[in-house]
Amino acid sequence: MTKRPNPFGPDGWTPDRIGDIAGKTYVITGANSGVGFQATRTLLGKGAAVVMLNRNPEKSDAALTELRQEFGADAPVSCIRMDLAELDSVREAAAAVIEQTTSIDALICNAAISQTATRKLTVDGFESQLGVNHMGHFVLSGLLHERVEASKGRMVMVGSNAYRMGKKKIFFDDLNSDESYSPWHAYNQSKLAQMMFGYELQRRVAAAGGDMVVQVCHPGASKSNLISGDVSTLNKILIKLMLPFFQSAERGAWPGLLCATEAEVRNERLYGPTKRADTAGPVGENTIAPHALDRDAAARLWEISEARTGVTWSL
Ligand SMILES: NC(=O)c1ccc[n+]([C@@H]2O[C@H](COP(=O)([O-])OP(=O)(O)OC[C@H]3O[C@@H](n4cnc5c(N)ncnc54)[C@H](OP(=O)(O)O)[C@@H]3O)[C@@H](O)[C@H]2O)c1
Q1: Which pairs count as long-range contacts for 141-144, CB under 8 Å and 24+ apart, including other chains?
Q2: Of ligand 1's atoms, which has the minimum distance to the CA of residue 114?
Q3: Distance CA 180, CA 72 (A)
Q4: Which amino acid residue places its CA nearest to atom 5 of ligand 1?
Q5: Which atom of ligand 1 is nearest to the CA of 162?
Q6: What are the tens digits of pLDDT across the range 90-137?
Q7: Domain ranges of the chain
Q8: Cα 158 to Cα 198: distance, rounded to the nearest angstrom
Q9: Cβ 160 under 6 angstroms from ligand 1
Q10: DSSP string, 96-163
Q11: I need a labelling partner for 47 at 20 to 30 A (CA). Which of 129, 130, 145, 258 fits?
């Protein structure tokens, strides 16, 4: 298949395209390291305010200290504690965001865990990767979407190329991997679920005539802390061997920043790096594997996510 020319030119999208965002407010999950931290740096550097929703208070303090050293003690950055593996914590964080902000120009759903070595359940009983990467963000987005809509803002799902690896479908009969668990399968399924949710949300907003923009992206292969958690030694070794070929986390943040700020975005697109099998290089549009746009599966996933989290959307 012939690739379309990059809509942002041969060098792709870069943060130089970000216009005047001074005074705007961005909310981002998992911003104490990696891609989320770098996205926060860029947004602050452009004069916006950022609310980080982070799990680990010590790491958050370290991130805040570093950001205040770079952007000044009065830099408009704050942190609300949120653990996506506990839906009560997500609800509390969403309530705090509503209380502390008057508008949300973009909610960037970036936090994730990857390749958890053994099957674990979140507090609410979801397989941990599905629970953190999809269900937690489904709840957070559900509780904040009216504020985002009122702000004519955006929602950004930070997915992964992993959505096109492995079985390429949602295992509705074994969503929680009770019958068979593998770290890669659970990660692939969780990122596919998060991305399908993004495309389904696009369709629902369009059907309702809403103003909110929803976009889906991925950071390619970027140096970060993603495999520093509960990951098998073998997977840690394999990824460490590949690390020299990974791009910086700063570049990995560009697709999410594009989705949060760029005027020229369109529905049913996937933004990410466009070279080396879409793992690095100029940021533009990737070809979307058709299973991510499966409308029946996305509608079923939405219904199940509402039923199992108890969060019902007004869309
Ligand atoms: N790096 C890559 O090559 C790559 C490739 C494909 C997709 N991605 C995606 O890029 C996004 C950013 O990841 P990254 O590479 O920057 O990894 P990272 O450095 O590990 O950042 C992930 C962030 O998510 C947070 N997080 C994890 N579990 C959480 C929970 N239960 N509640 C709240 N926050 C939680 C982490 O916080 P803690 O510090 O508390 O752990 C961390 O701040 C993820 O969506 C990932 O799937 C990355």
Answers
A1: 141/107, 141/109, 141/197, 141/201, 142/306, 142/309, 142/311, 142/312, 142/313, 143/90, 143/91, 143/94, 143/95, 143/98, 143/311, 144/27, 144/94, 144/97, 144/98, 144/104, 144/107
A2: 47
A3: 50
A4: 221
A5: 6
A6: 999 999 999 999 999 999 999 999 989 999 999 999 999 999 999 999
A7: 15-308
A8: 9
A9: yes
A10: HHHHH-S--SEEEE------BSS--B-TTS-BHHIIIIIIIHHHHHHHHHHHHHHTT-EEEEE--GGG
A11: 145
| CA distances from residue 56 to 5, 82, 110, 184, 271 in whole angstroms, order as listed | 41, 8, 15, 24, 29
Q: Which of 309, 314, 301, 94 is nearest to 194 (CA)?
A: 301
pLDDT tens digits, residue range 146-172? 999 999 999 999 999 999 999 999 999
Listed in order, strand segments (DSSP E) in 161-306 are 213-217, 270-275, 280-286
163 is catalytic: no
With the most atoms of ligand 1 within 8 angstroms of its CB, the residue from 224, 235, 247, 250 to mutate is 224
Gap from CA of 97 to ligand 1 centroid (Å) = 20
Query: 5 C-alpha vs ligand 1 centroid, how far in Å?
Result: 30
Q: What is the mean pLDDT of residues 60-83?
A: 98
What's the 276 CA to ligand 1 centre distance in angstroms? 22
CATH superfamily for 15-308 is: NAD(P)-binding Rossmann-like Domain (3.40.50.720)
122 to 116, 183, 215: CA distances (angstroms): 12, 15, 27
- Tokens for 134, please give them: 């999809």
pLDDT level of residue 89 (50, 70, 90 thresholds): very high
Exposed/middle/buried for residue 97 (C-beta within 10 Å: 0-12, 13-18, 19+): buried
Name which residue sits closest to atom 36 of ligand 1, judged by CA: 30
